[in-house]
Amino acid sequence: MTGIRAKARLETTTEIKHLAREQIASKGAANLSLREIAREMGVASSALYRYFASRDQLLTELIIESYDDIGNTVERADAKCSREDLAGRWRAVSQSLRTWAIANPSDYGLIFGTPVPGYEAPADTIAPALRYTNVLLRLLADVQGAGCKPLITVPTTKGVSKEYKRARANLGINLTDEMILAGLAAWAALFGAISFELFGHVDTVFTDPEAHFRALTEMLGTQMLGMK
Question: Is 0.85 surpassed by the pTM of this model?
């Protein structure tokens, strides 16, 4: 009986999360409602609290799954390339981000879009959230180790060196200030391009946004990160 109950619980939990994702896609994460999910399932709303204690717990589950999904995607893309093929890894990782986002726009919006009012992500979201970032950090470390140098100069902005020193300590990395600045700028540029495309900001600009994204990826890799 234990196995049957566990299977039934898993099926119900999966259905709840499926309906939650549909609701987020149509109404936004801020309007996620356990009561509405219960109505769609034809059960009392109190029944759902046996699976999720609150809306925030359900949101947390969805956020963790989304981070794990994008983490898996980026890790696989990086692993398919030779470690020495720095430019190839950069292209593969960048393209995998865009491909995942286009295939999962609601999940992308959930973790990278407007924060849900009143929701505070708990500590157990941190490790999943770092998975895709750690792929970038490993790549940047290999880029630096190969002797590539970013084609930028860190401005003498007040406090910036202290912030980068703190970043090295917090993330456990040994990157130069130049590599941290260039890496974060390149990463932000990729996500900016993806967000512009997903949220319709380039619909009247490009007919082939993927071509622009590929060009952006090449420019960032060679001209900002100094990949050879």
Answer: yes
